[in-house]
Amino acid sequence: MKEEQMAQDAMSVICRRRSVRDFTDAGIDEHALEALVRAGMSAPTARNMQPWSFIVLTGRETLDRLSEGLPYGKMLATATAAIAVCALPEEANGQSVELAVVDATCASENILLAAEAFGLGAVWVAAYPYEDRMAHVRSILNIPDGVIPLNVIPLGHPKASKPPIDKYRPEKIHRESW
Ligand SMILES: Cc1cc2nc3c(=O)[nH]c(=O)nc-3n(C[C@H](O)[C@H](O)[C@H](O)COP(=O)(O)O)c2cc1C
Predict the structure, then answer these.
(1) What DSSP string describes 48-62?
(2) What separation in angstroms does the CA of 11 have from each of 6, 16, 36, 168?
(3) What are phi and psi for residue 20, nearest 5 degrees?
Protein backbone atom coordinates (compact mmCIF):
# COMPACT_ATOMS: atom_id res chain seq x y z
CA MET A 1 0.00 0.00 0.00
CA LYS A 2 1.29 3.47 -0.94
CA GLU A 3 0.76 5.09 2.50
CA GLU A 4 2.48 2.19 4.22
CA GLN A 5 5.46 2.48 1.89
CA MET A 6 5.64 6.24 2.48
CA ALA A 7 5.54 5.72 6.24
CA GLN A 8 8.27 3.11 6.01
CA ASP A 9 10.42 5.39 3.87
CA ALA A 10 9.98 8.29 6.29
CA MET A 11 10.69 6.12 9.34
CA SER A 12 13.75 4.72 7.63
CA VAL A 13 15.17 8.21 7.01
CA ILE A 14 14.39 9.30 10.59
CA CYS A 15 15.85 6.19 12.24
CA ARG A 16 18.89 5.88 9.97
CA ARG A 17 20.05 9.50 10.43
CA ARG A 18 23.45 9.81 12.10
CA SER A 19 25.83 12.71 12.61
CA VAL A 20 28.39 12.51 9.82
CA ARG A 21 31.77 14.21 10.26
CA ASP A 22 33.87 12.68 7.46
CA PHE A 23 33.24 13.75 3.90
CA THR A 24 34.64 12.99 0.46
CA ASP A 25 35.60 15.96 -1.69
CA ALA A 26 32.60 15.52 -4.05
CA GLY A 27 30.48 18.65 -4.36
CA ILE A 28 26.77 18.99 -3.60
CA ASP A 29 24.23 19.69 -6.29
CA GLU A 30 22.58 23.15 -6.10
CA HIS A 31 19.13 21.50 -6.33
CA ALA A 32 19.91 19.37 -3.28
CA LEU A 33 21.00 22.47 -1.33
CA GLU A 34 17.77 24.23 -2.27
CA ALA A 35 15.78 21.16 -1.23
CA LEU A 36 17.50 21.12 2.17
CA VAL A 37 16.56 24.75 2.79
CA ARG A 38 13.02 23.98 1.62
CA ALA A 39 12.91 21.18 4.18
CA GLY A 40 14.06 23.63 6.84
CA MET A 41 11.34 26.09 5.92
CA SER A 42 8.72 23.34 6.10
CA ALA A 43 9.17 22.98 9.85
CA PRO A 44 6.45 23.97 12.31
CA THR A 45 6.84 27.30 14.13
CA ALA A 46 4.93 28.93 16.98
CA ARG A 47 1.98 30.81 15.44
CA ASN A 48 3.58 30.13 12.04
CA MET A 49 5.93 33.10 12.47
CA GLN A 50 8.88 31.38 10.69
CA PRO A 51 11.48 33.42 12.60
CA TRP A 52 14.54 32.13 10.81
CA SER A 53 17.14 32.71 8.13
CA PHE A 54 19.41 30.26 6.36
CA ILE A 55 22.89 31.08 5.10
CA VAL A 56 24.02 28.68 2.37
CA LEU A 57 27.79 28.33 2.30
CA THR A 58 29.81 26.82 -0.52
CA GLY A 59 32.97 28.95 -0.48
CA ARG A 60 36.04 26.99 0.57
CA GLU A 61 37.58 29.96 2.37
CA THR A 62 34.42 30.68 4.38
CA LEU A 63 34.06 27.03 5.43
CA ASP A 64 37.71 26.90 6.47
CA ARG A 65 37.53 30.14 8.45
CA LEU A 66 34.37 28.97 10.22
CA SER A 67 36.08 25.72 11.25
CA GLU A 68 38.93 27.64 12.88
CA GLY A 69 36.78 29.20 15.61
CA LEU A 70 34.42 26.31 16.28
CA PRO A 71 36.13 23.82 18.61
CA TYR A 72 33.73 21.03 17.66
CA GLY A 73 33.35 22.07 14.05
CA LYS A 74 36.69 21.11 12.58
CA MET A 75 34.94 18.91 9.99
CA LEU A 76 33.80 22.12 8.27
CA ALA A 77 37.26 22.18 6.72
CA THR A 78 36.40 19.03 4.79
CA ALA A 79 32.73 19.77 4.09
CA THR A 80 31.87 20.91 0.58
CA ALA A 81 28.93 23.04 1.75
CA ALA A 82 27.14 24.07 4.91
CA ILE A 83 23.96 25.76 6.03
CA ALA A 84 24.03 28.15 8.99
CA VAL A 85 20.63 28.32 10.64
CA CYS A 86 19.78 31.60 12.36
CA ALA A 87 16.99 32.40 14.81
CA LEU A 88 15.27 35.80 14.55
CA PRO A 89 13.68 36.76 17.89
CA GLU A 90 12.29 40.00 16.41
CA GLU A 91 10.13 37.90 14.08
CA ALA A 92 9.15 35.26 16.65
CA ASN A 93 5.88 34.97 18.49
CA GLY A 94 6.03 37.56 21.29
CA GLN A 95 9.57 38.42 20.08
CA SER A 96 10.66 35.53 22.26
CA VAL A 97 14.29 34.38 22.05
CA GLU A 98 13.22 30.98 23.36
CA LEU A 99 10.55 30.48 20.69
CA ALA A 100 12.88 31.70 17.93
CA VAL A 101 15.46 29.14 19.05
CA VAL A 102 12.87 26.36 19.31
CA ASP A 103 11.52 27.19 15.84
CA ALA A 104 14.98 27.33 14.26
CA THR A 105 15.78 24.03 15.96
CA CYS A 106 12.78 22.41 14.26
CA ALA A 107 14.08 23.74 10.93
CA SER A 108 17.56 22.39 11.68
CA GLU A 109 16.29 18.89 12.36
CA ASN A 110 14.35 18.96 9.09
CA ILE A 111 17.58 19.86 7.27
CA LEU A 112 19.43 16.97 8.95
CA LEU A 113 16.68 14.56 7.93
CA ALA A 114 16.53 15.87 4.37
CA ALA A 115 20.30 15.45 4.10
CA GLU A 116 19.89 11.80 5.10
CA ALA A 117 17.13 11.39 2.52
CA PHE A 118 19.49 12.73 -0.17
CA GLY A 119 22.25 10.34 0.91
CA LEU A 120 24.29 13.27 2.22
CA GLY A 121 26.13 13.53 5.51
CA ALA A 122 25.44 16.33 7.98
CA VAL A 123 25.94 17.23 11.61
CA TRP A 124 24.72 20.00 13.93
CA VAL A 125 27.69 22.17 14.92
CA ALA A 126 26.72 24.34 17.84
CA ALA A 127 27.06 28.11 17.87
CA TYR A 128 24.22 28.96 20.30
CA PRO A 129 24.32 29.24 23.31
CA TYR A 130 28.11 29.75 23.43
CA GLU A 131 28.95 33.48 23.26
CA ASP A 132 32.42 32.94 21.76
CA ARG A 133 31.19 30.57 19.05
CA MET A 134 28.25 32.83 18.17
CA ALA A 135 30.62 35.82 17.94
CA HIS A 136 32.90 33.86 15.60
CA VAL A 137 30.07 32.80 13.27
CA ARG A 138 28.54 36.29 13.46
CA SER A 139 31.77 37.99 12.42
CA ILE A 140 32.58 35.67 9.50
CA LEU A 141 29.05 35.63 8.09
CA ASN A 142 28.25 39.29 8.85
CA ILE A 143 25.21 38.36 10.89
CA PRO A 144 23.52 41.46 12.34
CA ASP A 145 23.01 42.04 16.06
CA GLY A 146 19.66 40.66 17.16
CA VAL A 147 19.99 37.63 14.90
CA ILE A 148 21.13 34.45 16.68
CA PRO A 149 23.44 32.08 14.80
CA LEU A 150 22.04 28.81 16.13
CA ASN A 151 24.33 26.36 14.39
CA VAL A 152 26.30 25.57 11.29
CA ILE A 153 25.43 22.33 9.50
CA PRO A 154 28.38 21.04 7.44
CA LEU A 155 27.30 18.98 4.44
CA GLY A 156 29.03 16.53 2.17
CA HIS A 157 29.03 13.06 0.77
CA PRO A 158 29.83 10.65 3.61
CA LYS A 159 33.22 8.92 3.43
CA ALA A 160 31.75 5.80 5.02
CA SER A 161 28.28 4.63 5.94
CA LYS A 162 27.43 4.70 9.63
CA PRO A 163 25.16 2.04 11.11
CA PRO A 164 21.92 3.31 12.64
CA ILE A 165 21.67 3.33 16.45
CA ASP A 166 18.46 2.14 18.05
CA LYS A 167 17.76 4.76 20.72
CA TYR A 168 14.31 3.45 21.59
CA ARG A 169 14.03 3.25 25.40
CA PRO A 170 10.67 2.05 26.75
CA GLU A 171 11.61 3.34 30.23
CA LYS A 172 11.52 6.90 28.84
CA ILE A 173 7.82 6.53 28.08
CA HIS A 174 5.09 7.27 30.62
CA ARG A 175 1.42 6.59 30.18
CA GLU A 176 -1.16 8.94 31.72
CA SER A 177 1.26 9.99 34.51
CA TRP A 178 4.95 9.85 35.44
C1 LIG B 1 22.23 21.13 20.23
C2 LIG B 1 23.26 20.22 19.60
C3 LIG B 1 24.58 20.61 19.54
C4 LIG B 1 25.54 19.80 18.92
N5 LIG B 1 26.80 20.28 18.76
C6 LIG B 1 27.71 19.53 18.07
C7 LIG B 1 29.00 20.08 17.76
O8 LIG B 1 29.30 21.24 18.04
N9 LIG B 1 29.87 19.29 17.07
C10 LIG B 1 29.55 18.01 16.70
O11 LIG B 1 30.39 17.34 16.08
N12 LIG B 1 28.32 17.47 16.97
C13 LIG B 1 27.40 18.21 17.63
N14 LIG B 1 26.13 17.71 17.84
C15 LIG B 1 25.78 16.36 17.37
C16 LIG B 1 25.71 15.36 18.53
O17 LIG B 1 27.00 15.11 19.02
C18 LIG B 1 25.04 14.07 18.03
O19 LIG B 1 23.74 14.36 17.54
C20 LIG B 1 24.93 13.02 19.12
O21 LIG B 1 26.22 12.58 19.51
C22 LIG B 1 24.12 11.81 18.70
O23 LIG B 1 24.67 11.19 17.55
P24 LIG B 1 23.80 11.01 16.22
O25 LIG B 1 23.44 12.40 15.70
O26 LIG B 1 24.69 10.26 15.27
O27 LIG B 1 22.56 10.24 16.57
C28 LIG B 1 25.16 18.52 18.42
C29 LIG B 1 23.82 18.13 18.49
C30 LIG B 1 22.88 18.98 19.04
C31 LIG B 1 21.42 18.56 19.03
Answers:
(1) G---EEEEEE--HHH
(2) 9, 8, 18, 13
(3) -115, 130
Quick: pLDDT tens for 131-161: 999 999 999 999 999 999 999 999 999 999 9
Write the pLDDT tens digit of every residue in 82-119: 999 999 999 999 999 999 999 999 999 999 999 999 99
Percent of the chain with pLDDT over 90: 99
**Distance from the alpha carbon of residue 168 to the mean position of ligand 1, in angstroms:** 18
Ligand 1 atom with the smallest distance to the CA of 20 is 26
Q: What are phi and psi of 103, to 5 degrees?
A: -65, -45
Q: Which domains does the chain have, with CATH numbers?
A: 19-159 (3.40.109.10)
How far apart CA 97 and CA 9 sit, in angstroms, is 34
Gap from CA of 153 to ligand 1 centroid (Å) = 10
Closest atom, ligand 1, to C-alpha of 21? 11
